[in-house]
Design brief:
Helix content: over 70%
Largest sheet: none
Radius of gyration: 14 Å
Oligomer: single chain
Order of helices and strands: HHHHH
Number of helices: 5
Structural class: mainly alpha
Length: 110
Amino acid sequence: MKIKYLAGLCAIWGVMQVTTAAALTVEDRCEIVAEVAASIMQARQNGTAREPVLAKVQVEGEPDITELFEVMVQNAYDTAIEDSGLRKTELVKEFKSQWQTACLQGTSAL
């Protein structure tokens, strides 16, 4: 259920006509989603408070993108901060991969 919701949000983002993203391929857009996800999880694992991260993911004039990024923040902050540096790195990679996959699955359904 959670993945379908994520894929749905990514699909919304995939069909939006954002001027700066108009020339980007689906793969390019999903890579951006993945990089944002990695940054959010890295902030979480570094112990950054949720509020500054939420403030940074606000995209003016793009409520669908903002909602997508806010869901990422919620998911990341539902994850405990790991003690091990190696485990933190693994979590960031896993989170990035999860979001990239959800994005590609969401946009392939269009």
